[in-house]
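Here comes a specimen:
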Amino acid sequence: MTDTAGPRVSEYMHRQLEIFPEDATALEVAERMRDRRVGSVFVEALDREQRDCRLAGIITETDLVTKVLAQERDADATLVSDIMSRPLLTIAPDRPMIDASHLMESQRVRHLGVLDGTDMVGVISVRDLAKHFMEAPVGPVQALNDVYRPLTVLMQKAIETLDARKTATAAARWMATQRIGSVFVVEAGEIVGIVTETDIVRKALAERLDPKTVPLGALLNHPLVDIDLNRSIRDACELMAQHHVRHLAVTDRRKIIGVVSIRDLVKMVSVRDRPEFLRRP
């Protein structure tokens, strides 16, 4: 990784950690995520040889959606030790933020533990990366200010949709299969909103609703937060932060033509040294 000077991970990380023991349940994790409005928690394991506890893994909203809901497991009987992601990916607090971006993109994750020696001192997420890149006076985001319709560089043109009558379980399965974090919800042939992993975890799982029966129409975010194709990437970042969302519908003449996410921004930044990226068709 690079040693380029710039803001460090320690300047943007969150120091308050949400930690669960191995024998906690997926339902307890979902409830904590809802109550604390967080997208990940750490899992603590007992090291019998050292007679000590250590952080052994992490559970994210993606884990709950793909490993519990999509597989129709009982969240109240599923232990976090069975679904946590491991090994735990970490980064040192003195590393540049751009290194965190590269690591997240290469490993396809949205959260990293911040490890100072042997101590876990914080967590950093894609939201923190977006904030940094938006605030930086120079960098990839600013470099695109003069590009015509810069959102076309980032947005995904494939729009994944599901009918409002489909269930949370059906959405979870589709997200797991397509490896996506959101779907647009359609009613009477029109897109009426969006459902994300966060919505499924906080509004269905944490509320103890039956995911096999609750319809997406009861979970969707409406009105849909969108952004015009002619707006800047900075505008997109600010809009995401303002509405506390990770996805925006991209519109052209009020018609939805794609979707842009924080992960798309991180991907763009991670390949910033490849000029051909901006010349792709």
